[in-house]
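Hi L.,

You mentioned the student needs an example of a multi-chain input paired with its predicted structure. This one should do, with 528 residues in total across all chains.
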Amino acid sequence: MEAFFEWFRVFYDETGINLPFLYDSYDRDRMIAGFFMTIKLSLVCLFFSIIIGIIGAWLQNSPLKWTRRIMNGYIQLFRNTPPLVQLYFFYFAISSLLPTVSNGYGGQQPILGGFAWAAISLSFFAGAFNVEIFRSGIEAVPNSTIEAAEALGFSRLTIYLHVTLPLAIRVALPALNNNLVNLVKTTTLAYAIAVPEMLYEANQIWSDNVNVTEMMIFLLITYFALVGVLVWGMNRWERSLKIPGFGA
Amino acid sequence: MNTQKHKILPVMMAPRPRPDDRFHLQPWHGLVLVAVCIIATIPAAFAATDPERASILEVLTRWMPLMLKGFIFNIVISVLAMAVGTISGAALGLGQISLNPFVRKFAWFVTQFFRNAPWLVLLFFAMFLLPFEFKIFGLTIPLPDWLKAIFGLSLPVMANVSEIVRGAVQSLPSGQWEAAESLAFSRNQVLWRIILPQCVKRMLPPWMNLYSILTMATVLASIVGVSEVMTLTGQILAAEGGRSDLLIPMYSFVLFLFFIYCYPIARWTVRLEKKFAVIT
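Structure written out for the whole complex:
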């Protein structure tokens, strides 16, 4: 394995194409850590944004007028403001209101770090889109299905969980797919609040080695691959969920 | 009406109407929002008894012209990036439906590549890989940061416009092509006189949607050092001595600026979508 990595050092000497994250073990560790940080951030945000979407779509159909209004206010606010400003708002503004904890060295540190705020703000951002996506899926469920479930004595919550949602997810999957791809791409914003994800680590490496071009192309290819894996997985999921005769 | 007193079975009741009174924000809601923000800051504003420290409202009004100037710069960046992206994207989209398989493959690849790359990475790409000046015929043309940012933001816009164009052209029924061909139109004539005019209607809502996404993405330029509204906000906060009570009003104000610009676009898009919806 070491010989394989050493080959890139020779490659650099011969061609001038500098890929330090392959032959330099320190840079390699940084890059791998950044890669897994991006994946971790993406997975956490994917999970919570879908949860927010599901709960939000349920609240949006609530019989209470004000629940619906607050939900719509949340969606419109998060959809129509830049995610970066939202991130700054959470990380700098909201964070300044929260209590600080002692960090064990005699200093004070905020109770939530960069990663937590990035996860929270990006989940809320993507969640706002997911609510709309799930709502459009729910609207596609025929009224008669819901009435049939009502006639069978289901409550509002059980109708949602056992009848509407399973059907709505199938309709909403293509749009959800799109949004989740966007979410993975948006995790690069965490760079702005110094979460050590892939873009951040790449920046560190190109600052040390002055090889912006190589790092940039590597980044683009890596994100391309990450998004590709996500799209492939979602397509498989979509196929496995497919009910013959329902949906397009 | 039901004069008999006995209880009717739930099954026999008329279907419960689905809630449909969706809350739409009106322009006056913005005023209410501002009023609430101001009222909420009044206690803090009066609490500033220290004459050295200006109240939050005072600080906000003092810096508002600068922040608005920064925001206008954001809009200028978004309009220019949209223009560049739309023109190149339209060309790329037409390339995607070209009859030449090589052109088609190439346009498809470029589109997918720039569509699947994060905006921020593309922005870095443009920032670091474009020269800060270039020479043509001995004439040195400087390339300032904001021009590079426009170029960097127009790359993903280009790819998305390309997909919008391809989608719109392919969504037209193929009968349109066949009918035009049977009337002896050439391919160019069919495309420009028959297909594209019909596509404009279909392309408009997603195009506007993209514009609002782009406007929100212009803030990214602050990360690479263009002095737009976010950069200015950071500088203002530093100039005020890093007061932590200013953080929330300042960032809320930036959020508010973007909201009042993007929300009408979003509403208008929804209206157009409804208007142009094809009833199947």
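You could point out the following to them. The radius of gyration of chain B is 26 Å. The domain at 56-130+142-276 of chain B is CATH 1.10.3720.10 (MetI-like fold).

Best wishes,
N.
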